């Protein structure tokens, strides 16, 4: 109980504004009447998740989706923070949606487009500074679809220039997180395709840059926990975007396909004594297309806590002994023992002693919150769509 409590007391996880909005696949959206469409509704939904779980005090914002008027909105964000008791979390510039980004943003061969993309990142850093948010999360979606059509090597130099310019604009304490992804939207080459490229770009930008690991952004057989171990070792791990997948970047709720994967990641964090470190931003990055958005978010937060607690339970001194004497099966069983523990009763106790509902998902259903927002938002949402759940 004590071991689990200690781990859980330091565990917080950021939730994304876009997880409450209507999002879908490139083939379409299944609309939900309860979906949030204003920044205020996203803050309200985040506050509900925080009230139920107690561990989601910050909301990640995507500048173009949430803050179309840019830096002028800092006052409005502050007002929402005060009203809902939720702070703005990582600020995400949007470098992938504008028409001019067809051939890239900060790696575009056109210097004027690179310049505009860089200004947008700097403006995002200014928004973050104005609202007192530490991290700017950068997903550079640039790439190309056909061999020979873009200069992979010159684009490296352009990205370095642009990211250094952003770094120079950061205020002390701010961080820029470089997220990598090997595929989608580009299908031949992606400019920041893996952790090596992200790490080198972060290093060349400067000391306030780190790597962001999105669990959905890997090839199938890749050993994500090994990447995490290396980034921790190099003091280069800025944080995570958690989600699960079966095929590609599916954005399924974390732990839904392979909970052992996330357990193994958390193990590497505990192993290097980085559990509870504020320097590793735990964030959820999921778009819920089939599940109800509030339910999916609460379920994800609870699952993350369960897996974090399980990983904290590993008998590490014993495991080390077994590893050192290469007792393979015993070491594996020692590791798996923790994974198979049912931590849910302890989690219920932990919540009760903190005045939180023992079962946040059941409490969400009993609260009537989803029914209320469905009724409130149905009509307005109906104006922009023809059919929805
Ligand atoms: C890209 C990504 C990135 C974006 C988010 C909406 O796949 O993971 O983090 O900002 O999705
Ligand atoms: Mn992501
Ligand atoms: Mn993604």
Automatic annotation (TrEMBL):
Pfam families: AP_endonuc_2 (PF01261)
Keyword Cytoplasm carried by entry: no
GO biological process, one term: rhamnose catabolic process
GO molecular function: L-rhamnose isomerase activity; metal ion binding
InterPro entries recorded: L-rhamnose_isomerase, Xyl_isomerase-like_sf, Xyl_isomerase-like_TIM-brl
Key words, A-Z: Isomerase, Manganese, Metal-binding
Domain Xylose isomerase-like TIM barrel: 69-269
Keyword DNA damage: no
PANTHER family named in the record: L-RHAMNOSE ISOMERASE
UniProt name for this protein: L-rhamnose isomerase/sugar isomerase
Native source organism of the sequence: Acidipila rosea
């Amino acid at each position: 109980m004590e071991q689990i409590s200690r781990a859980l007391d330091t565990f917080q996880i950021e939730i994304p504004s876009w997880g409450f909005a209507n999002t879908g696949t490139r083939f379409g959206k299944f609309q939900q009447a309860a979906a949030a469409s204003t920044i205020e509704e996203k803050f309200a939904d985040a506050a509900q998740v925080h009230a139920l779980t107690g561990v989601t005090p910050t909301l990640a914002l995507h500048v173009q989706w949430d803050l179309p008027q840019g830096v002028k909105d800092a006052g409005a964000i502050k007002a929402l923070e005060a009203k809902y008791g939720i702070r703005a979390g990582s600020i995400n510039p949007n470098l992938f949606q504008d028409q001019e980004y067809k051939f890239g943003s900060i790696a575009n061969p056109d210097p004027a487009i690179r310049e505009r993309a860089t200004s947008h990142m700097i403006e995002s850093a200014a928004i973050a500074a104005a609202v007192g948010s530490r991290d700017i999360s950068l997903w550079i979606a640039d790439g190309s679809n056909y061999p020979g059509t873009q200069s992979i090597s010159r684009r490296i130099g352009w990205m370095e220039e642009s990211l250094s310019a952003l770094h120079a604009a950061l205020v002390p304490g701010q961080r820029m997180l470089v997220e990598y992804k090997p595929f989608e939207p580009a299908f031949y080459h992606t400019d920041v395709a893996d952790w090596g490229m992200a790490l080198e770009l972060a290093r060349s930008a400067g000391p306030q840059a780190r790597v962001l690991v999105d669990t959905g952004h890997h090839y199938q057989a890749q050993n994500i926990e090994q990447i995490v171990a290396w980034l921790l070792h190099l003091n280069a791990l800025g944080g995570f975007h958690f989600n699960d997948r079966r095929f590609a970047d599916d954005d399924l709720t974390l732990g839904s396909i392979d909970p052992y994967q996330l357990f193994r990641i958390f193990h590497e964090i505990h192993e290097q004594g980085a559990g509870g470190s504020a320097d590793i931003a735990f964030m959820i990055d999921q778009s819920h297309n089939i599940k109800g958005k509030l339910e999916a978010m609460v379920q994800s937060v609870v699952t993350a806590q369960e897996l974090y607690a399980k990983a904290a339970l590993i008998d590490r001194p014993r495991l080390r002994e077994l590893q050192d004497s290469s007792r393979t099966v015993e070491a594996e069983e020692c590791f798996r023992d923790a994974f198979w523990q049912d931590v849910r009763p302890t989690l219920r106790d932990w919540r009760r002693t903190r005045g939180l509902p023992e079962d946040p998902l059941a409490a969400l259903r009993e609260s009537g919150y989803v029914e209320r927002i469905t009724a409130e938002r149905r009509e307005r949402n109906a104006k922009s769509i023809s059919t929805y759940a």
